[in-house]
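Task: complex structure prediction.
Instruction: return structure tokens for all chains below.
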Amino acid sequence: MNDVPAISFRDVDFSYDLVPVLKVVNLIVKQGEFVSIVGPNGGGKTTLLYLMMGLIEPDRGEVRVLGKKPETARRKIGYMPQSMDFDRQFPVTVMDVVLMGRLGSRLGGPYHKADKQAAMEAMEEIGIDSLAKRPFSKLSGGQRQRVLIARTLACNPEILLLDEPTANVDPDTEGMMHEFLHEMHKRMTILLVSHDLAFVSKAVKSVICVNKRVVRHPTAEITPEAIRELYKDEMRIVRHDQRYQNGKNSNG
Amino acid sequence: MGFFELLTDMITDYTLRTVAMGAAVLGIVSGALGAFAVLRKQSLLGDAVSHAALPGIALAFILTRSKAPIVLILGAAVAGWIGTLIVMSVVKSTRIKYDSALGMILSVFFGFGLVLLTFIQKLPDATQAGLDTFLFGQASALLQRDVVTMAILGAIALFAVTLFWKEFKILCFDPSFGGSQGSPIWLLDIILTTLLVIAIVIGLQTVGVVLMSAMVVAPASAARQWTDKLGWMIVLSALFGAIAGVAGAVISSTVPRLPTGPAIVLCISAIVAISLFMSPNRGLFFKWIRERIRSRTLRLQGILSDLYELTEQHQDREHPHSEAVLRTMTPSMADIHGSLRELSRQGLVSEIGDHEWVLTEKGYQEAKRNLSLRGAQ
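Output:
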């Protein structure tokens, strides 16, 4: 079973209203890999994730998740959206939010006992079980991020898709994210969308660069030239001294 | 009319009882469904639906020549629903934004509805009179069977809410995550919007198309002030809607020529105002009081630590310090004398001679503790 790739794209094109967003994407992510998706704003990173989850259909080509159609396999995917997407004042408790990870495609009726059990276990794993009854709106940014992680884990995923989990968080939370990803990598495939190349170069071995076209690089090959090529003028200067001093590119 | 007479009227008077029950039903249903609309930031959708319903009512009458509530409600629902779908598809397929689309649909449908009403009034038919009461609502015309129709439709809507409770919660909170879980978000969106349309059309006869949106937005806004839990918010919202409905019905029955719809809307507005000011966590009144207490505590602590600093500089705890010195150390125009009096009441300072103060032992320890706490932060 493990020979089946976690994610595979074959000749995939996608466009929004005739504006091409992704062109001829060919991509394989093996099970157990930890890769990062980088690229400029509007380059198609989130679109790539949406295709993996079957939220949108490709114009051409084929997307497979664990060898199956995304619609069938998406229960195996734990998705963590960008945290800016929703109303922070929304009246829900932490437990409510984590339980959302157990929604599934079954319509109607309340959550089962097993769902609550799984949600509780996910919260214990992240160390937020004491917050279960707190209003989500009263949490700090770091706590909120932990809740979203617990929600992602509650569905027992085999593949994690994280959309910029370290955008707008404090250094403590970023450190926590590092630790969490390191821990999770032992048991699942991880795809991480991030602008933060310092974070990426420390954490992952391979990078998927998305800007209409999709190219895979080992992290060691990410030279300043490659990044400039990818981001063109949009690049902001990111220091990653650590990587380049210890790695092969230490002259830079 | 006294309170007891009103109470007995509520039970014995057919019209008042019917109106009060109808208003309660519409308050409960629009309050509960309105809460979802408000949380989805679709407050104005209610306005568009109710205005868009008017041509539906008129067309239903023209086609059937019947004024049976179920016929008119059905017409209203279909027109309101079509209006909503047009708004959704305009937003999806053009560059026109949500609020502009709502504004357009609302006025186009409402205008068309008014034209149809004028047309109906010119019809040589005795039964046409009274359809324009849908503009501002006329609760006194409610019959028991109307209320039964409203209650059945409302019960169906509320049952659907409990059935799809967890799905609606996700739809409102984080639809893209719900979609990633395989939930049919577009279908849920249509179901919830349809339920909102039902909630609105059952209130039209009582409150009228012009004011109905208040019954969607106001109870939910008031309820949001009191709780951080979705379930409680919806229960409270329904309760506020019901209270406003009954209160408005009763008030309009006691004041001559006061229409019920506006009376209900005034009642719910009063509930909103009270909630905005008086709710314990978010209310402006308690916020103001908390602010006052905090600034007073800070002022007292500031003066205490100033006095402590002077004491330390002089290395003599018995040496008194004048109010004038303390005033120069305080940046604001705070009432130094009054604050010192308050501190003295708490046994933290004592006055020696005229406007000369020293720290008591308790005050000395307190100031020391405050400073070390502040240092620790």
